[in-house]
Design a protein that fits this description.
There is one protein chain. With about 180 residues, this protein is α+β, with helices and mostly antiparallel strands. It has 2 domains: about 30 residues, no CATH class; about 130 residues, 50s Ribosomal Protein L5, Chain: A (2-Layer Sandwich). Helix content is about 30%, strand content about 20%. It contains 4 helices and 5 strands, in the order αβαββαββα. The two termini are about 35 Å apart. The relative contact order is 0.20.
Length: about 180
Amino acid sequence: MASRLENLYKTKLRLQLQKELGLKNIMEVPKVNKIVLNTGVKEAVSDSKAINTVKEVMSLISGQAVVATLAKKSIAGFKLKEKTPIGVKVTLRKQRMYDFLDKLINLALPRVKDFQGVKVSFDENGNYNLGIKDWMMFPEVDYDKIETSRGLNITIETTAKNEKHAYALLKSFNMPFQKGKE
């Protein structure tokens, strides 16, 4: 069963984007490839149990198992050894990707206090990076079980050829971009 956002894209938004962007072929219309969630856990260097708590919460937020990211080399000044877990990441594709995007746009971002919209910042390949200061905005996070609040990086990879196409794609999903910076 396809997600609500995926059905909307395939039935309505794709055709609208084709007309809006002036594309001849429906296959040229940009789409979302994958979404990567990533967070660092600096306490994992001294406390190995900290990474497990972050893994549990990230699994709840993303809806799938997460992977610990390992240090590539040792750094004595930070008491960091090679291959020590120092972060957590998860890559979402297909239905889970659309489910997460739907939850991010319609549930999580509106819960942020004094929310003014997200910044319009795409890279040259049409991908979007969003930094979240507090993961408590997601409805799955239980305030009582979490002792520290963490930030989260969300990367939305698209097939867009440029920033204009990527912006049009995310705007069609009702991504709340900041006013005046569009």
